Amino acid sequence: DRLAFATLRAGDGRSQIYLQPTAPDNATNSWFYGRSPAWEPGSNGGNRIVYRGTDLTGNQIGLWIASNDGDDRSSLTSVGSDDRPTWTPDGKSIIFTSSDRDSNWEIYRLLLETGVVTRLTNDPELDVLPSVSPDGTMVAFVSNRGGDWQIWVVPLSGGDPVMIAPLE
Fold this sequence. Notes:
Elements: E1 2-7, E2 16-21, E3 29-39, E4 48-53, E5 62-67, E6 74-75, E7 83-87, E8 93-98, E9 106-111, E10 117-119, E11 127-132, E12 138-143, E13 150-155, E14 162-166
Antiparallel strand pairs: 1-2, 2-3, 3-4, 4-5, 5-6, 7-8, 8-9, 9-10, 11-12, 12-13, 13-14
């Protein structure tokens, strides 16, 4: 019954997440500073949101998780370039992209139960914009491997990426 989105419309140059009720007569509510929000899927769908954000003082940049009302916020990672989080369909992992972990934009998996981060891609070119398949077995991403931007997939458990489509 709500949309979560990030915008710079507050006018201070910082991305802020807003919650917008889908009922036309309800007002948009400001939440807090952050970007790239993603709702939790599955049986708990809508109870939590993962996003790239900071603590309340604007420090400790990384991935954060919060209840859908903005309470119970906690840091998942403390690497400043961790971004574009997306959930696996079972809600057990977060897939994201980062450039500061291995000096290049790569795709990573964070297992929520243990906090263990695993790199899924390893290439000198850029691997960005991850998206998990509906069955939770593959992660699609965009990469400029070979000089041209293409869509690739890699198994969620790790393995060799495969190019599936060029981008015109």
